[in-house]
Amino acid sequence: VLREQTIDTTVHPPLKPEYLDIIDISKLLKVEQKTIYNWVSSGKIPYLKANGRLLFRRKEIDEMLRKQTAE
């Protein structure tokens, strides 16, 4: 008995990761990694440290960008 199979070919947009690393955040903000480190040192950007790595919560970065564009 042959049965017809259907395949879902819907293209789904890639999921945005909840956390970004230093490389991702520098690309997103279009600044050098050194600038991000300076912002971290001076408290200008929210971050977390996990296993010695700097991580940035996408939600907080998006909110920071919204506030800057609203000013």
Structure notes:
It contains three helices and three strands; from the N terminus they run E-H-H-E-E-H. It has 71 residues and is an alpha+beta fold. It has one domain (19-70). The chain has a three-stranded antiparallel β-sheet. The chain is elongated, with a radius of gyration of 19 Å. The chain starts with 18 loop residues before the first strand and ends with a helix. The mean pLDDT is 87.
Kindly summarize this structure in a few lines:
By secondary structure, this protein is an alpha+beta fold. It has helices spanning 22-29, 33-42, 58-70; strands spanning 19-20, 48-50, 53-57. It comes from Tannerella sp. oral taxon BU063 isolate Cell 1/3.
What is the secondary structure topology, with strand pairs?
Blueprint: E1 19-20, H1 22-29, H2 33-42, E2 48-50, E3 53-57, H3 58-70
Antiparallel strand pairs: 1-3, 2-3
Domain Helix-turn-helix: 19-68
InterPro entries: DNA-bd_dom_put_sf, HTH_17
Protein name: Excisionase
